[in-house]
Amino acid sequence: MKAVIQRVSRASVSVDGEVVGEIGLGALILLGVMSDDTSDEVAWMASKAAELRFFEDDEGKMNLSLLDLAERGLAPGVLVVSQFTLAADGRKGRRPSFDRAASPGDAEPLYEEFCARLDALGLRVERGKFGALMEVSLVNHGPATFVLDRSSASNRIDR
């Protein structure tokens, strides 16, 4: 599982010109599900995303997580957008291979589980539309962008 997490002032996702998800202060998470991912990867990624300290504290240091902001009553939003292209392998040729991406039937339940885990932690979760052609708009605050990678095929990073 791979995630690109961007600290945003605001973000939205539209399908066919209609906004389907929108947040103010918070995080836009582009989530790529790999073919060998399980609930273990989902649990790790959701916990890591919620606890990653990438918001500034009163001294201007990145010491606050989404959960910390929620505890302070700032109600951060999380916009989660499925993005199978994060599974791309471009090492050979000029066309990326998506062999590592989970099939839609396998990926969608894990995507939904990821969103549900964030929601269960008390975060306000908005979603893109799984499998749709989406237009994502954001104002990256910082900019601050982080790439997290956790798959059963890679070395596991423990908390």
From TrEMBL:
Catalyzed reactions: glycyl-tRNA(Ala) + H2O = tRNA(Ala) + glycine + H(+); a D-aminoacyl-tRNA + H2O = a tRNA + a D-alpha-amino acid + H(+)
Principal location listed in the UniProt entry: cytoplasm
Q: Which compartment or compartments is the protein found in?
A: Cytoplasm
Q: Which Gene3D superfamilies does this chain map to? A: D-tyrosyl-tRNA(Tyr) deacylase (3.50.80.10)
| MF term (GO), any | D-tyrosyl-tRNA(Tyr) deacylase activity
For biological process, the GO terms are: D-amino acid catabolic process
Q: Which keywords accompany this UniProt record? A: Cytoplasm, Hydrolase, RNA-binding, tRNA-binding
**Is Iron tagged as a keyword?**
no
Q: Where is this motif: Gly-cisPro motif, important for rejection of L-amino acids?
A: 142-143
The record's section on SUPFAM superfamilies has: DTD-like
EC annotation?
3.1.1.96, 3.1.1.-
Q: Name one GO cellular component term.
A: cytoplasm
* Pfam families for this protein: Tyr_Deacylase
How does the record comment on the protein's domains?
A: A Gly-cisPro motif from one monomer fits into the active site of the other monomer to allow specific chiral rejection of L-amino acids.
Report the HAMAP family cross-referenced here.
Deacylase_Dtd (MF_00518)
Family classification? Belongs to the DTD family.
Quaternary organization: Homodimer.
The free-text function statement in the UniProt record for this protein reads:
An aminoacyl-tRNA editing enzyme that deacylates mischarged D-aminoacyl-tRNAs. Also deacylates mischarged glycyl-tRNA(Ala), protecting cells against glycine mischarging by AlaRS. Acts via tRNA-based rather than protein-based catalysis; rejects L-amino acids rather than detecting D-amino acids in the active site. By recycling D-aminoacyl-tRNA to D-amino acids and free tRNA molecules, this enzyme counteracts the toxicity associated with the formation of D-aminoacyl-tRNA entities in vivo and helps enforce protein L-homochirality.
Q: What is this protein called?
A: D-aminoacyl-tRNA deacylase
Q: Which organism is it from?
A: Saltatorellus ferox
